[in-house]
Amino acid sequence: MRKSLVALLFAAALPALAVAMPGGMQDGQHPGKRAPHMFHGLDLTKEQQREMRKLMGEQMRQRHEITQRYLDKLPEAERKAMQNDLDASREKTHQSMRALLKPEQQQAFDEGMKKMEEKRAERAEFLEWKAERDQKN
């Protein structure tokens, strides 16, 4: 289940990574700032941008909670199959994204992916520790 959770977190984070990468989706009126396509041309104030990000973050958390609720009902074999599909899809997407980049961009991409993987492993370790601690209490 932890692997499924990690995979879901990663799947949810992948679009954010794509947007956050140098040269990601940019709002033409605010060079260097990333904005989803649906907000392009709205000329949002800083406060509106903060509120939009807050709402989008809440929606992502709710979506994750709902997804997890249904995942918890799946048999272990189904969860493992899902995890394998997610892993394969993620790897294919990474390879496709990397192939679009110039060599120096590939290096930066690889470093970013390595850092993200380290954070993911750290988070998984924390969650494992937390689960063990909760079982003892």
UniProtKB/TrEMBL annotation:
Residues 73-94, 111-137 have a biased composition (Basic and acidic residues). It holds the Pfam family Metal_resist. One of its GO terms (cellular component) is outer membrane-bounded periplasmic space. Keywords: Signal. The keyword Zinc does not apply. Belongs to the ZraP family. This is Signaling pathway modulator ZraP. It comes from Pseudomonas songnenensis. The lineage of its organism: Bacteria, Pseudomonadati, Pseudomonadota, Gammaproteobacteria, Pseudomonadales.
